[in-house]
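Aim 2, interim progress: modelling of the FE2/S2 (inorganic) cluster-bound target.
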Amino acid sequence: MQIAFTLNGKPTTVDAPPYITLLELLRDYLDLTGTKEGCSIGECGACAVIMDGELVNSCLVLAPQAHGSSVVTIEGLCNADGSLSDLQENFIAYGAVQCGICIPGMIVAAEALLAKHPNPSRELIRWALIGNLCRCTGYQQIVDAIEATAQARQRSASLQPKLTEHARTI
Ligand code: FES
Ligand code: FES
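Predicted structure of the complex, ligand included:
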Protein backbone atom coordinates (compact mmCIF):
# COMPACT_ATOMS: atom_id res chain seq x y z
CA MET A 1 0.00 0.00 0.00
CA GLN A 2 0.99 3.63 -0.48
CA ILE A 3 1.78 5.43 2.76
CA ALA A 4 1.97 9.21 2.40
CA PHE A 5 3.08 11.37 5.30
CA THR A 6 5.31 14.26 6.23
CA LEU A 7 8.72 13.02 7.33
CA ASN A 8 11.10 15.49 8.91
CA GLY A 9 9.22 18.30 7.20
CA LYS A 10 9.20 16.74 3.72
CA PRO A 11 6.21 15.14 1.95
CA THR A 12 7.05 11.45 1.62
CA THR A 13 5.28 8.59 -0.10
CA VAL A 14 6.43 5.01 0.22
CA ASP A 15 5.09 1.70 -1.01
CA ALA A 16 5.18 -0.84 1.81
CA PRO A 17 3.24 -3.81 3.18
CA PRO A 18 0.44 -2.83 5.58
CA TYR A 19 1.60 -5.19 8.32
CA ILE A 20 5.01 -3.66 9.06
CA THR A 21 5.73 -1.23 11.87
CA LEU A 22 6.63 2.42 11.54
CA LEU A 23 10.08 1.46 12.84
CA GLU A 24 10.53 -0.98 9.95
CA LEU A 25 9.17 1.57 7.49
CA LEU A 26 11.74 4.13 8.62
CA ARG A 27 14.72 1.81 8.78
CA ASP A 28 14.07 -0.72 6.02
CA TYR A 29 12.10 1.28 3.45
CA LEU A 30 13.43 4.80 3.98
CA ASP A 31 16.99 4.07 5.16
CA LEU A 32 16.59 6.23 8.24
CA THR A 33 18.62 4.02 10.55
CA GLY A 34 19.10 6.65 13.25
CA THR A 35 15.95 5.31 14.88
CA LYS A 36 17.13 2.23 16.75
CA GLU A 37 15.51 -1.11 17.41
CA GLY A 38 16.02 -2.34 20.95
CA CYS A 39 13.29 -4.47 22.50
CA SER A 40 10.62 -4.29 19.74
CA ILE A 41 7.91 -4.47 22.41
CA GLY A 42 7.60 -0.88 23.59
CA GLU A 43 9.81 -1.10 26.65
CA CYS A 44 13.14 0.59 25.83
CA GLY A 45 12.40 3.81 23.91
CA ALA A 46 15.28 3.29 21.44
CA CYS A 47 12.79 3.58 18.57
CA ALA A 48 11.16 6.82 19.77
CA VAL A 49 9.93 9.32 17.18
CA ILE A 50 7.60 12.30 17.38
CA MET A 51 4.31 11.71 15.59
CA ASP A 52 1.88 14.62 15.31
CA GLY A 53 3.68 16.26 18.22
CA GLU A 54 3.54 13.24 20.53
CA LEU A 55 6.37 10.96 21.54
CA VAL A 56 5.68 7.41 20.34
CA ASN A 57 7.59 4.15 20.22
CA SER A 58 7.69 3.42 16.50
CA CYS A 59 7.90 -0.33 17.13
CA LEU A 60 4.34 -0.14 18.46
CA VAL A 61 2.92 1.90 15.57
CA LEU A 62 1.78 0.13 12.41
CA ALA A 63 3.15 1.82 9.31
CA PRO A 64 -0.33 2.58 7.87
CA GLN A 65 -1.10 4.57 11.03
CA ALA A 66 1.52 7.08 9.86
CA HIS A 67 -0.50 7.82 6.70
CA GLY A 68 -1.42 11.51 6.75
CA SER A 69 0.65 12.23 9.85
CA SER A 70 3.75 14.27 10.52
CA VAL A 71 6.71 12.28 11.83
CA VAL A 72 10.00 13.62 13.15
CA THR A 73 12.94 11.26 13.62
CA ILE A 74 16.40 11.83 15.03
CA GLU A 75 17.54 12.73 11.48
CA GLY A 76 15.14 15.68 11.58
CA LEU A 77 16.50 17.12 14.80
CA CYS A 78 19.89 18.41 13.67
CA ASN A 79 20.42 21.99 12.53
CA ALA A 80 19.20 23.02 9.07
CA ASP A 81 22.78 22.84 7.73
CA GLY A 82 23.16 19.27 8.97
CA SER A 83 25.37 20.15 11.92
CA LEU A 84 24.63 18.83 15.40
CA SER A 85 21.97 20.65 17.37
CA ASP A 86 22.72 22.33 20.69
CA LEU A 87 21.17 19.37 22.49
CA GLN A 88 23.27 16.89 20.54
CA GLU A 89 26.40 18.95 21.22
CA ASN A 90 25.55 18.98 24.92
CA PHE A 91 25.14 15.20 24.99
CA ILE A 92 28.76 15.05 23.85
CA ALA A 93 29.97 17.87 26.12
CA TYR A 94 28.39 16.32 29.23
CA GLY A 95 29.61 12.79 28.48
CA ALA A 96 26.04 11.56 28.09
CA VAL A 97 26.87 9.05 25.34
CA GLN A 98 28.54 5.68 25.80
CA CYS A 99 27.52 2.82 23.49
CA GLY A 100 24.96 5.13 21.87
CA ILE A 101 22.13 2.71 21.17
CA CYS A 102 19.69 4.57 23.41
CA ILE A 103 20.81 8.07 22.45
CA PRO A 104 18.60 8.82 19.40
CA GLY A 105 15.56 7.88 21.47
CA MET A 106 16.82 9.98 24.39
CA ILE A 107 17.32 13.02 22.14
CA VAL A 108 13.91 12.60 20.53
CA ALA A 109 12.27 12.24 23.96
CA ALA A 110 14.14 15.29 25.22
CA GLU A 111 13.08 17.44 22.25
CA ALA A 112 9.48 16.29 22.71
CA LEU A 113 9.75 17.39 26.35
CA LEU A 114 11.37 20.75 25.57
CA ALA A 115 8.74 21.53 22.92
CA LYS A 116 6.08 21.35 25.62
CA HIS A 117 8.11 22.39 28.67
CA PRO A 118 10.97 24.71 27.64
CA ASN A 119 12.14 25.12 31.23
CA PRO A 120 11.71 21.70 32.87
CA SER A 121 12.82 20.79 36.39
CA ARG A 122 15.27 17.92 36.76
CA GLU A 123 12.40 15.88 38.13
CA LEU A 124 10.35 16.54 35.01
CA ILE A 125 13.31 15.66 32.79
CA ARG A 126 13.66 12.34 34.61
CA TRP A 127 9.93 11.76 34.33
CA ALA A 128 10.02 12.48 30.58
CA LEU A 129 12.74 9.85 30.13
CA ILE A 130 10.85 7.19 32.05
CA GLY A 131 10.27 5.20 28.85
CA ASN A 132 13.89 5.38 27.67
CA LEU A 133 16.28 2.79 29.02
CA CYS A 134 20.06 3.25 29.10
CA ARG A 135 22.24 0.43 30.29
CA CYS A 136 25.47 2.48 30.22
CA THR A 137 25.39 6.02 31.51
CA GLY A 138 23.40 5.96 34.74
CA TYR A 139 21.23 8.78 33.31
CA GLN A 140 22.89 11.58 35.33
CA GLN A 141 24.84 13.04 32.41
CA ILE A 142 21.83 12.74 30.13
CA VAL A 143 19.72 14.79 32.55
CA ASP A 144 22.60 17.29 32.88
CA ALA A 145 22.81 17.70 29.08
CA ILE A 146 19.07 18.26 28.70
CA GLU A 147 18.95 20.70 31.63
CA ALA A 148 21.91 22.69 30.26
CA THR A 149 20.28 22.88 26.82
CA ALA A 150 16.98 24.08 28.26
CA GLN A 151 18.76 26.74 30.31
CA ALA A 152 20.83 27.95 27.34
CA ARG A 153 17.74 28.14 25.14
CA GLN A 154 15.95 30.13 27.84
CA ARG A 155 18.87 32.55 28.08
CA SER A 156 19.02 33.08 24.33
CA ALA A 157 15.20 33.49 24.15
CA SER A 158 15.29 36.16 26.86
CA LEU A 159 18.21 37.89 25.12
CA GLN A 160 16.46 38.05 21.74
CA PRO A 161 13.94 40.87 22.51
CA LYS A 162 16.78 42.92 24.06
CA LEU A 163 18.93 42.46 20.95
CA THR A 164 16.00 43.41 18.71
CA GLU A 165 15.39 46.51 20.84
CA HIS A 166 19.07 47.38 20.66
CA ALA A 167 19.06 46.94 16.86
CA ARG A 168 16.16 49.39 16.57
CA THR A 169 18.16 52.09 18.35
CA ILE A 170 21.26 51.89 16.12
S1 FES B 1 12.42 -0.96 20.19
FE1 FES B 1 10.60 0.18 20.47
S2 FES B 1 10.45 0.50 22.61
FE2 FES B 1 12.19 -0.81 22.37
S1 FES C 1 24.62 4.84 26.08
FE1 FES C 1 24.56 2.66 25.98
S2 FES C 1 22.49 2.16 26.38
FE2 FES C 1 22.61 4.32 26.69
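The mean pLDDT is 95. Residues 140-169 form the longest helix (30 residues).
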